[in-house]
Amino acid sequence: MNNQDIKKILITELDLKQTYVTGDNNHIKIIAVGDVFRGVSKVKRQQIVYTPLINMITEKHVHAISIISYTPEEWEKNKKNNNHSDDL
């Protein structure tokens, strides 16, 4: 499973506005942006992103995942305050 497959799963399953997936099967880094994170704690946001990927994790197609999640408003604010290219 490659990064584009993971991105497609997340966008489709979670109806995300934007998703960035980098890394390899040993460590995937995900930045997810969507309304699904509105009013949700950081822990719950992690769980939301893990849910559609759980089979890939349990079947060891992916070893580790790092997740950063934003609402669209948080993403816009973060882009203005930081150069987020270091996170990708």
Automatic annotation (TrEMBL):
Pfam families: BolA. The lineage of its organism: Bacteria, Pseudomonadati, Pseudomonadota, Gammaproteobacteria, Enterobacterales. InterPro entries: BolA (IPR002634), BolA-like_sf (IPR036065), BolA/IbaG_stress_morph_reg (IPR050961). This is BolA family transcriptional regulator. Belongs to the BolA/IbaG family.
